[in-house]
Amino acid sequence: MKAPMLSRLFRWVSLLVLVAFLAACAGTPTAAPTQPPTTGGESGPLADLVAAAKKEGMLTTIALPHDWCNYGEAIETFKSKYGIQVNELNPDASSAEEIEAIKANKESKGPQAPDVIDVGYAFGPQLVDEQLAMPYKVSTWDTIPENLKHPDGYWYGDYYGVMAFEVNKDVVKNVPQDWADLLKPEYKNQVALAGDPRLSAQAQMSVYAAALANGGSLDNVQPGLEYFKKLNEVGNFVPVIAKQSTIAKGETPVVFRWDYNALADKKALEGNPEIEVVIPQSGVIAGVYIQAISAYAPHPNAAKLWMEFLYSDEGQLIWLKGGCHPIRFDDMLKRNVIPADLLAELPPAELYAKAVFPTIEQLNAAKTYIAENWDKVVGAEVK
């Protein structure tokens, strides 16, 4: 569904509400770095970083599909801007697999060792507890909400969205509007997840959202597992990890997916097939992803430069073009640096009014519970 135009004032007020909510959980403020945001023509410390990164000559990423948050443009812009090669590992890896890639390559400086990762919010403490991340504060550090970054710079939020239904309208004639609809016989063999719920943050958040829509809470995800058990028992659940290709072919015509991923598919497919993106009437959950540099990064300077690029205005706008709300959105809005056409393409702010943001502790508890109980409650192997 095409997002209707909204006034800048309405978006501003809505965003203030969101920021006020996030600020309520804020911790002790961190000291600001001295280097200002940059978009080119770097000097001083950042120029030294650019030189060191160019000397390394390569950055290794993992789990960055080009249609996820417009990462394709981000990667190509970074390569062009700095002349650094980007080695892309397993674009479809889950958050858990990204972390395992760091662990498996601790002693390696070869091409299978990732420099940087982009994982679900709940994985932040694990990175610190297991000493898998390298601390680094980007020059725009002060404009990242306090409660969405580790105080010592081990990880920091990058973007957020809400869980939505991505629907292939060429296959699905009655577009579902809420979770209960998907239990109807007309959706037999049509409903899928975009990942393995034992490993994937996106899939786990789908279960979490289903819990909220079916009598659960941020502290009780069991109803979400029961929902998927029922979905499987009535024959509506397809145990296939859904991708743009499976959606387009009609193999997984209804998918639980972050709104920005669904919107990216809609744009990429250009009506063939026609995609509708539905934010459900209940169980609207927001999800934040985070960036981190591997503690064992083979190219640590290139990794730091990648972070500087992503958290600059330029990098944040690239994410916004992909339908993601960049973590520095509020700061950029206040400085009037977001083009009006990008604001107009976002889903209307009122659709986000019911969204809830779990704390990192709630996410960790939910993640563990879902991973440990999916097999015994739902009994469907998603692959």
List the helices and strands and how they pair.
Blueprint: H1 8-23, H2 44-56, E1 58-62, H3 71-82, E2 85-89, H4 95-104, E3 116-120, H5 124-129, E4 133-134, E5 156-168, E6 191-193, H6 201-213, H7 222-233, H8 244-249, E7 254-258, H9 259-269, E8 275-278, E9 286-294, H10 300-310, H11 313-321, E10 325-326, H12 329-334, H13 340-345, H14 360-377
Parallel strand pairs: 1-2, 6-7
Antiparallel strand pairs: 3-9, 4-9, 5-7, 5-8, 5-9, 5-10
Signal peptide: 1-31
Protein name: Iron ABC transporter substrate-binding protein
Keywords: Signal
Tell me what you see in this structure:
It is a single chain. With 383 residues, this protein is α+β, with helices and mostly antiparallel strands. It folds into two domains: 8-156 and 292-349, D-Maltodextrin-Binding Protein, domain 2 (3-Layer(aba) Sandwich); 161-286 and 358-377, 3-Layer(aba) Sandwich (D-Maltodextrin-Binding Protein, domain 2), CATH 3.40.190.10. Helix content is 39%, strand content 14%. The chain has 14 helices and ten strands. The strands form two sheets. Strands 3, 4, 5, 6, 7, 8, 9 and 10 form an eight-stranded mixed β-sheet that branches. Helix 7 runs parallel beside helix 14 (360-377). The chain is globular. The model is unreliable at 1-40 (pLDDT under 50). One of its GO terms (biological process) is thiamine transport. It comes from Thermanaerothrix daxensis. One of its GO terms (cellular component) is outer membrane-bounded periplasmic space.
